[in-house]
Design brief:
The chain has 90 residues and is mainly α. The protein has helices at residues 13-27, 33-43, 47-56, 61-82, 85-89. It has one domain. The protein is elongated.
């Protein structure tokens, strides 16, 4: 019953970058040395690759995955809430 499915596209690069920025702002303490490294990583060319390189070797790796999952779930929830599901079912 593919006609009853809703396609949800991945976030656009700007939305993904916003998630990364919110993570750095909200989840990394100001006194953590990694915060400066993360800001530097995302301000250069290939920000996502640089961010991944820095976060993967840190104690904040799992926190990043948890934060990202929650943010993506919110995007999906917001998108589904914006749809008129009753109209789609007709």
């Amino acid at each position: 019953h593919w006609e009853n499915c809703v396609r949800i596209d991945p976030p656009k690069p700007g939305e993904s970058f916003g998630i990364v920025e919110r993570f750095i702002l909200d989840c990394i303490p100001d006194d953590a040395g990694i915060k400066k490294r993360l800001w530097k990583a995302v301000s250069e060319r290939k920000p996502f690759r640089n961010f991944k390189y820095v976060i993967d070797g840190s104690e904040y790796r799992q926190k990043w995955f948890d934060f990202r999952r929650i943010q993506l779930e919110r995007l999906v929830t917001d998108y589904l809430n914006s749809l008129d599901i009753d109209a789609l079912a007709e």
